[in-house]
Specification:
Number of helices: 14
Order of helices and strands: HEHEEEHHHEHEEEEEEHHHEHEHHHH
Distance between the termini: 111 Å
Helix content: 40-55%
Structural class: alpha+beta
Shape: rod-shaped
Strand content: 15-25%
Number of strands: 13
């Protein structure tokens, strides 16, 4: 390989050694480069245009932490991908709040005025009228609130996984439920507080008129030793009674189980249960004492005890917005179609494939071969001159010969050498200044760390929240400033 015309035996031996050394070094170099290229891992990036939902889910399984799919539609209404269905307590769908039942209890209003205030034939109609109003108010509250919620914007700049999507949607639904129930109960609590604080009275109070005076005296109701002026929790059981016109003496026929009258209608109703109205025989017992008894023609249905507990208080039902359960269905497919990502980019770390290794080795083989030839010649001449004690002069001569072009072959070799050095220099510059993606994970970064990272790596910074849902009160403060007119005494 290093043979020249007119070589003597010494030069031939010299050329053989150079050839063997060259082949050995070339083989070792190729093996080292091959193993390096095969074992080297690098961060790769790939983009898929117009990915389908199936493709996204498959990519999300493999590259969940390094998958980026930008939505073409950032905001969308909840109604576009979900439905909510409330199932109200059976009492709100039963005969007990119907006009027919209320009119049945009311009967002859003139005759019912004869009965005492604790008699079901007198006060029962007011309790069920109030229960009907509460059911209607709950349904209206839910319908209005649900319509508003479904028109709320769901924001998503990146396509999120199905699990995260469902978690985020369910969290929003739970927050909305809590807010709606809170608004409903707040109205009732305000009504209770105003009624008791201002001593508002209904027609269930007794009015006493002195025949010798023009004044009308109002007597605050008392239940045994409990006075409504001091406490709003006074209760008495409602039943069926018979007494004299003054109701100073009366006889008890039947007590409606756990059905009470309080200082106000709503106080008594909330502490009551509907136990009697889960039992048809109890309802028929009440019917026997009505002036217009239906008897065998009684057509009102009792409540189903398999659906709800008969011992559940009406207050407990109200606290749940008169709702037994909710059904919400969210469609990830609808969300994905509206989001409609134009492309998905994912990053992964992998080794180079065999084809890349072969093409790379073939690409550098020519330059590597020429470089090794020149390097081996320099090394062997260096050794030979060292042995002949002419190291310095030989080294100077060798350097001069590199740039002396006596023949065309020497000129070609020198140009090869110069181009090789130039290529190696360019490769070094390219490798040194080529940008390379490096993933760095910082656990539990502080706010200052996050701000510093955001300044330097705003496009590639990703920080996942440990809590998806956060109450506004934890980071938001709202203070109204009223007009001076409303503050002047």
């Amino acid at each position: 390989m290093f043979k020249h015309d007119g070589s003597n035996q010494h030069q031939i031996n010299y050329q053989r050694i150079a050839t063997r050394f060259y082949l050995f070094v070339l083989l070792i170099s190729v093996i080292i480069f091959s193993f390096y290229l095969l074992l080297n891992k690098d961060l790769q990036q790939k983009t898929i245009h117009q990915p389908s939902e199936f493709q996204f889910k498959e990519l999300e399984k493999i590259y969940s932490s390094n998958l980026y799919c930008s939505c073409s539609t950032v905001s969308m209404n909840y109604s576009t991908f979900m439905t909510i269905e409330p199932y109200f307590h059976q009492v709100c769908l039963s005969d007990l709040i119907s006009d027919a039942w209320i009119n049945y209890i009311m009967g002859d209003s003139v005759l019912n005025d004869y009965f005492g205030i604790l008699d079901f034939r007198n006060s029962g109609v007011f309790q069920f009228q109030l229960l009907s109003m509460l059911c209607q108010h709950a349904q209206q509250t839910v319908n209005i609130s649900m319509k508003t919620f479904l028109q709320t914007q769901f924001l998503s700049s990146q396509v999120i996984s199905q699990n995260r999507f469902e978690t985020k949607v369910n969290s929003s639904i739970n927050d909305w439920k809590s807010e709606t129930i809170g608004q409903f109960l707040q109205t009732i609590k305000i009504f209770q507080a105003v009624s008791h604080g201002n001593q508002l009275m209904s027609d269930q109070f007794h009015y006493f008129i002195d025949a010798n005076d023009t004044k009308m005296n109002l007597e605050v109701r008392k239940y045994f030793n409990c006075s409504c002026i001091l406490s709003s929790s006074c209760l008495m059981s409602i039943g069926l009674f018979e007494g004299d016109p003054s109701w100073e003496l009366y006889m008890t026929f039947f007590i409606v189980p756990n059905f009470f009258l309080g200082c106000s209608q709503i106080e008594g109703l909330m502490k009551s249960t509907l136990e009697c109205f889960y039992n048809l025989s109890c309802m028929l017992t009440l019917d026997r004492y009505f002036d217009r008894s239906l008897g065998s023609s009684f057509y009102f249905s009792n409540l189903n005890e398999n659906l709800n507990s008969p011992n559940e208080t009406i207050e407990s039902i109200i606290n749940k917005l008169m709702i037994d359960s909710w059904t919400s269905n969210s469609s990830f497919s609808s969300y994905y179609n509206i989001c409609s990502p134009s492309s998905c980019t994912y990053e992964y770390i992998s080794r180079n494939d065999l084809f890349f290794v072969i093409t790379t080795i073939l690409g550098i083989f020519g330059g590597l071969s020429l470089g090794l030839k020149l390097l081996i010649i320099i090394i062997l001449r260096f050794i030979e001159n060292k042995i002949n004690n002419n190291f310095f002069n030989g080294f100077i001569t060798m350097i001069k010969n590199l740039f002396v072009c006596n023949t065309e072959q020497r000129l070609i070799n020198r140009l090869h050498f110069i181009f090789l050095l130039l290529i190696l220099y360019l490769l070094f510059i390219f490798s040194a200044f080529k940008p390379k993606s490096v993933t760095v994970q910082i656990k539990k970064p502080s706010l200052s760390n996050y701000k510093d990272l955001l300044k330097d790596h705003s496009y590639s910074l990703q920080c996942s929240c440990s809590q998806i849902s956060i109450p506004y009160e934890t980071f938001l403060n709202i203070e109204p400033h009223f007009h001076d007119f409303g503050l002047k005494a």
